[in-house]
Design a protein that fits this description.
Blueprint: E1 3-7, E2 10-13, E3 18-25, E4 32-38, E5 45-51, E6 57-59, E7 67-72, E8 77-82, E9 91-98, E10 105-106, E11 112-117
Parallel strand pairs: 2-11
Antiparallel strand pairs: 1-3, 3-8, 4-5, 4-9, 5-6, 7-8, 9-10, 9-11
Length: 118
């Protein structure tokens, strides 16, 4: 069974940067991987996704131009480089998989907390 472990979160001032990692244990056979985030009292929000084989990336409107998703097939890891962080980027960041195109994401890891201070 494939599992995901997120890491790299922390406390950073507004304007700063963080890089999140999502380590994939087991053999990944899905279509893509994605990052989502959630703050208390809000719904889980799409942040970014990448097609595992082709590398095509997609981003939520609020992070376009600031965040970059990438994957390392050899390391079986997905990254989220976050630059020019804003206080509204605060939340728990989760990675999950997409079994096939257009399918919902799932199989979430435990999440990693990102806190951006003003």
């Amino acid at each position: 069974q494939v599992k995901f472990v997120e890491s790299g979160g922390g406390l950073v001032p507004a304007g700063g940067s963080l890089r999140l990692s999502c380590a994939i244990s087991g053999t990944f056979t899905g279509y893509g991987m994605g990052w989502f985030r959630q703050s208390p009292g809000t719904r889980r929000e799409f942040v970014a996704a990448i097609a595992w084989s082709a590398g095509y990336a997609d981003y939520g409107d609020s992070v376009k131009g600031r965040f970059t998703i990438s994957r390392d097939k050899d390391q079986n890891t997905v990254y989220l480089q976050m630059n020019n962080l804003k206080t509204e980027d605060t939340g728990v960041y989760y990675c999950g998989d997409q079994r096939r195109p257009q399918a919902a994401f799932g199989s979430w890891g435990q999440g990693t907390q990102v806190t951006v201070s003003s």
